[in-house]
Amino acid sequence: MPEFFSAPAFALWGSPVSWLELVAAVLALAMVGCNMREIHWGWPLAIVSSLLYVAVFAQARIYGDASLQMFFAVVALWGWSQWLRGHRADGSALRVSRLSPRGIALALAACALAWPAVALFLRRFTDTDVPWWDGFSTGLSLVGQFLLGRKFIENWLVWLAVNVVSVGLFIHKGLWLTVGLYAVFAVLSVAGFLAWRTRMHGGAAARA
Predict the structure, then answer these.
(1) Do residues 178 and 56 lie in contact, with contact meaning Cβ atoms separated by under 8 Å?
(2) Splitting the chain (208 residues) into consecutive groups of 10 residues, what average pLDDT does each group show?
(3) Which of 39, 53, 122, 162 has its CA 20 to 30 A from that of 65?
(4) Is residue 140 exposed (0-12), middle (13-18) or buried (19+ Cβ within 10 Å)?
């Protein structure tokens, strides 16, 4: 990695913020803005931002989130293709919609299984000092990413939980720019849910 990216851009509360973290944060904000408006260009932004955050989180020994970012970069290709050419099981176009009761139950079960599975893996195979916090954000993000790719509005609720917990995790690690970023993400999770709900109701009215 070029020294420029590792060099501090500025300091927040005594902790240096690298150019790497700064660029990754800006791209991540642009990505969420695109997601809220259903603009498919958010997915390539997600790829670049995720790859940058691999280095940021690895340096902070948050290995679950570092691995998650690599996963995000790969899954973003799938999400991009879904938003461009995806469709529902009945063949209809992929539009913003709600999970069925069965889908909600499956999503909750996936979250309940992913959290301890990831946390136990991190505690066993890495030197992380926050396996359960890291495992929560990592495990639930896997579910959130799938729901986002399939345009289920509940993805924003999953991201809200992830973002709130991540704020505490990054405070612990002293990643102050990323603390601010994830605090903004938490607010945008609510805004994204409301925006998608409006789009969903507007689309239903147009089809009526």
Answers:
(1) yes
(2) 52 68 88 93 93 83 77 89 89 91 97 94 83 89 93 97 93 82 94 94 57
(3) 39
(4) buried
